[in-house]
Amino acid sequence: MRRRQRQLVAEPKALKRRYNSTLFRFSGNTSPLMLVYRGFSRSAPQATALTIGNFDGVHLGHRALLERLRSVAVSQQMLPAALTFEPHPREFFAPESAPARLSTLREKLEMLAEEGVALTCVCHFNTGFAHLEAEEFIEKLLVRSLRVKHLIVGDDFRFGTKRHGNFALLQDAGHRHGFAVEAVPSIMVDGVRVSSSAVRAALADGRMEDAARFLGRPYVIDGRVVRGRQLGRQLGVPTANIRIKHANPPLIGVYAVEVRGLADGPHRGVANIGFRPSVNQGINPLLEIHLFDFDEDIYGAHLSVRFLHKLRDERRFPDIDALKSQISQDLESARQYFTH
To answer: Which of the two residues, 13 and 327, has the higher pLDDT score?
Structure first.
């Protein structure tokens, strides 16, 4: 079967084994190349227009920063660059209460590349990095490594140990080191400030339309199809299984979805994401997708799953017959959603 190519020149695992640079190409041979630095031991190849953030989910607020970044980079002939962190700082400081990830590192890098970023610096957020003073952050990362000439941040940006760094400090440093600084205001949608937290709340509540408005697109999970226990096929609903890389997914339940990455797509179907309490009681989450009117071997395919509408919560059923009955209802509900 012909499949859409979504290969990286180097996977994130290879990236983690290095402390220099890796060149990425996403989504086929016509997509933009993006240079990725792991850490800040190397200098950017030229002066940069730079933005900074976690960019979890790359929502409309992030996209406003990136749109301004592209504009400045083009007008001033600079390299459009982004600085981000791995893991999320809250995962480092309080892993037990850290928020659910909206995107993996690979997904985040891919979305940044699609938004026109030419260089991304991924800084490992560890004890040493957490204790960087604000002035050290500016001199080591922004000035020496990333050669910043124009810095674009959100209106709530803080940095350095104990978050002492703020916009006023950046402006003062800019005067001394020769770079401009500007803040982009928050984006509001229906009276709600767009943030990764707002997206997580919408997904957790099953408000898929709200999540899509905050993101500027439906929520998506990417992943490669792996072999499972064939339980779906035994129940008469063969599924494509994708393992979730984080133990705490931002949404759980059964959804009407649209799947891209296969020939003659996109394809519609039903997805269950969770821990399969009726048949598995597993500790690792799994994404299972049943595609309507489709029965081909797609093991190894890299799929992009768009979550459009929540059908129900995940729950445990008393026996297999009850589970099969509910699956039939889910399939019918999803078909009705796509019809109406």
So the answer is: 327
pLDDT tens for residues 230-279?
666 666 788 999 988 877 899 999 999 999 999 888 999 999 999 876 66
The CATH number of whichever domain residue 245 belongs to comes to 2.40.30.30
Characterize the bridge pairing of strands 48-52 and 79-86. Answer: parallel
Same domain, 140 and 263: no
Beta bridge partners of 164: none
d(CA 132, CA 160): 6
Cis peptide before 45 (omega within 30 of 0): no
Backbone φ and ψ for 174, nearest 5 degrees, come out as -60, -40
What is the distance between the alpha carbons of residues 45 and 310, in angstroms, rounded to a whole number?
46
**Overall domain count for the chain:** 2
- Asked if the structure places residue 208 within a domain, the reply is no
| Alpha-carbon radius of gyration of the chain | 22
